[in-house]
Design brief:
Residues 22-150 form the Pyridoxamine 5'-phosphate oxidase N-terminal domain. By secondary structure, this protein is of the alpha+beta class. It has helices spanning 21-30, 68-75, 106-119, and strands at 4-7, 34-39, 45-50, 53-55, 58-63, 78-83, 92-103, 127-128, 133-134, 140-155, 160-165. It is 19% helix and 42% strand. β4 (53-55) and β5 (58-63) form a beta hairpin. It is globular.
Length: 166
């Protein structure tokens, strides 16, 4: 799915061009770590780092059912995933906003487990349980998909802020 693309001139250098969506999508695929932002029941934010894979036009991540992020998503599935470089003058930072939805289909979970293993070169292996991942220690992890509603891109160097709407 191709989003609508718009450069926000308020936060961009003169003459800057919007970042093409294929470039942003490629970075979402390649990134190794991401920051997940959720909202606690009392309204306070919760931010944590995690691993994710881009597949089927969505970012996928997993978490234990007892973890804070899972509890937050149970009451409010709106979230943001962020990735990028922490340098000032180069790189592309991305913020994906969307709704986290549980993935329980066995075929999809199998493809995602294979994608995790391929992307993270075998460091992360998951077997399948009943609608969950099972890690090597036997712990279960819920799997979520976040299809972007909006993505913000902050390209550094020539400073361009791009917004993609889906």
């Amino acid at each position: 799915m191709e989003p609508t693309t718009r450069l926000d001139a308020r936060f961009s250098a003169g003459g800057a061009a919007p970042t093409p969506w294929p470039e942003a999508r490629e970075q979402l695929e390649r990134a190794e770590t991401y920051w997940l932002t959720t909202v606690r029941a009392d309204g306070r934010p919760h931010v944590t780092t995690l691993l994710a894979v881009w597949q089927d036009d969505a970012l996928h991540f997993c978490t234990g059912a007892e973890e804070q992020k899972a509890r937050n998503l149970e009451s409010n599935p709106n979230c943001a995933l962020t990735t990028g470089a922490s340098s000032l003058h180069e790189g592309l930072d991305l913020v994906v906003e969307g709704v986290a939805e549980r993935v329980t289909d066995p075929g999809t979970l199998k493809r995602l487990a294979d994608a995790w293993e391929a992307k993270y070169t075998g460091e992360w292996h998951f077997d399948l349980g009943d609608g969950v991942f099972v890690n090597t220690a036997g712990g279960e992890a819920l799997v979520f998909a976040v299809r972007p509603a909006k993505v913000l891109g902050f390209r550094k160097g020539d400073y361009a802020q791009t917004r993609w709407r889906f």
